[in-house]
Amino acid sequence: MPAPISRQDAVRKLLRLARPVEARAVPPKDGIGLVAARNVAALCDVPEHACSVRDGYAVRSEDVSRARSLDPVRLAVNGCLRAESANPPSIEPGTAVRVLTGGPVPPGADAVFAEEDVEETDGHILVREPVRPGWYVRAAGGEIARDTVITPAGAPITPQAAAIMTRTRVASVPAHPRPRTRLLALGSELAKPGAAEDDGDHPGTMHFPADNLVLQRGLFEAAGAVVERTGVIPDDRDRLVAALSAPDLPEILVTTGGTGNSERDFAFEAAQQAGFTPVFHRIDIRPGRNMFTAVRNQTLLFGLPGPPAAGHACFHAIILPVIRRLRGLPDPETPRTAQFTQAINARPGSEWLVQCALEIQGSTLTATPLAGKTVPPMLGLAQAHGLAVLQSGQTITPGDETEILTTLF
């Protein structure tokens, strides 16, 4: 059997195979959470024309330049402009126009008096102080100018960005669809979550819910992928080969279980029978050493060990960078790190992925290990927010920093 590959080499091999899912044009509202394939820019100014930011009166500042408290300027009010008003006529010298918030400032006017700053009487206003040009006026493009990039290529489209795209007349955006995923839990002892646990065909046989399907679905969806189907396959090589040979496979196919050394562990051989070419067979991490990956056409197959903690570790170490690549996200420039709150020692022999509870304290991301004799494995998995990467034989003391793998950030 070949020597296990390092985590870094495994990721490099897979990223050479992974390509962002082909972009397609979608309305901004349907692009939320997707990654922009190109820069998305505003197609119009907002506001499209100068507008008032207060309820008040549009004026020509030169008409009130001599206004004083004891010598007010009297202006006739001609009409009212609202947010929906279009193409207002030019303001006449010596007059004002009533304008509501968002209403257009008429040509010739260059300032707005708030209604509480003037006196209204008999269709006129009395102005008792001068006003600066631009007062309470938002210029065309004052909120966002035409051709301003709203979301750059390679960045996720946020709800607020989608709203601004909609406002600036962007009808469609080029975005990478979420990579599609299919999950298969292998084992005759498993039942799909929610199914009956008793085996009617084999009385006295107990099935256990396939918790890996819940775990991996949650991890994939948290990372921005979409899980299109899940299923349980018993320990039947022919059924597994048939499932892996399906013509409509998505970008990612995941099996859990069947990667050990017993007579029931035939996932790797079944993948080869189904036409997949191995990328690597084992990986030098713990837990998760018996993971394998393979490729057929545009589908990447990840064969994960059955223990949920091992699948959790393999997802963060190997699959998460691939999902980012398929989504069109750039590779992180530097690893994310966290400061340990407790001491921990890694045993010699492999790179260790240690379950951790993560917390932001002030400006520092901290990691509390959930390992050792005092933390049962399943409880540690339930409370973990990510994993810390420890090298073979490494000793960590409180305050030390190490690389963290998580879907939280």
From TrEMBL:
SUPFAM superfamilies (UniProt xref): MoeA N-terminal region -like (SSF63882), Molybdenum cofactor biosynthesis proteins (SSF53218)
GO MF annotation terms: metal ion binding; molybdopterin molybdotransferase activity
InterPro entries, per database record: MoaB/Mog-like_dom_sf, MoaB/Mog_dom, MoCF_biosynth_CS, MoeA-like, MoeA_C_domain_IV_sf, MoeA_linker/N, MoeA_linker/N_sf
Domain of life: Bacteria
Cofactor list: Mg(2+)
Single biological process term from Gene Ontology: Mo-molybdopterin cofactor biosynthetic process
Pfam family, one: MoCF_biosynth
Pathway given in the UniProt record: Cofactor biosynthesis; molybdopterin biosynthesis
Entry-linked CDD domains: MoeA
UniProt keyword Transferase present: yes
Residues annotated as domain MoaB/Mog: 182-325
Keywords annotated in UniProt: Magnesium, Metal-binding, Molybdenum, Molybdenum cofactor biosynthesis, Transferase
EC nos: 2.10.1.1
Catalyzed chemical reaction(s): adenylyl-molybdopterin + molybdate = Mo-molybdopterin + AMP + H(+)
Top EC class for this record: transferase
A single cellular component GO annotation: cytosol
Family the UniProt entry places it in: Belongs to the MoeA family.
PANTHER family in UniProt: GEPHYRIN, MOLYBDOPTERIN BIOSYNTHESIS PROTEIN
Function: Catalyzes the insertion of molybdate into adenylated molybdopterin with the concomitant release of AMP.
Name of protein: Molybdopterin molybdenumtransferase
Naturally occurring in which organism (per UniProt): Pseudodesulfovibrio mercurii
